[in-house]
Specification:
The protein is α/β, with parallel strands linked by helices. Strands 3-2-1-4-5 form a 5-stranded mixed beta sheet, sandwiched between helices. Helix 2 links the parallel strand 4 and strand 5. Helix 1 crosses helix 2 and helix 3 crosses helix 4. The chain is globular, with a radius of gyration of 15 Å. The model has no long low-confidence stretch (mean pLDDT about 90).
């Protein structure tokens, strides 16, 4: 993608228990927290899990032009079981929200960075767990937006 297209992007941090969602402004400058969704592990294999349906509803509500999903890779740059899980989630999401594209991006340290930033602001313990997924989604989306601006700017 050489030409930057204007529009809201959603950033998604997929965890085992929760899914954090962030959104960008239409100019792709700033990512802000949106919501934390509970993962739906009870959906039948052929059914759309409620968390994916909720992300799809957010895509429509915010008229998102793209969804950026954080792909967990370890510090050596290798993909483990968590990456396989996230890729499957991203594929399922892409099927549901097509033709809106789903892009995977390296999220190596997003949760660690988000936790540290929240702690620096005095948000700890249970309050931190409630928002860390949104904050991680912000980190994922913001670093992706910054990289796109560097590439096209």
């Amino acid at each position: 993608m050489t030409e930057w297209s204007r529009g809201v992007r959603l950033g998604v941090d997929v965890g085992q228990v929760r899914v954090g969602v962030a959104r960008s402004d239409p100019h792709g400058v700033l990512a802000t927290p949106l919501v934390t969704l509970a993962r739906d592990s009870t959906a039948a294999p052929e059914a759309v899990p409620s968390d994916i349906a909720e992300v799809a509803a957010l895509v429509l509500e915010h008229e998102a032009v793209e969804v950026v999903v954080g792909l967990p890779v370890n510090l050596a740059g290798k993909q483990g079981p968590a990456a396989v899980h996230v890729k499957a989630y991203a594929d399922r999401l892409a099927d549901v929200i097509a033709p809106v594209p789903v892009t995977l991006t390296d999220e190596r340290m997003s949760t660690v960075v988000a936790s540290r930033r929240l702690a620096e602001r005095g948000v700890r313990g249970r309050r931190q767990r409630a928002v860390v997924d949104q904050a991680a989604a912000v980190e994922i989306l913001q670093s992706w937006l910054d990289a796109q601006r560097r590439r096209t700017g």
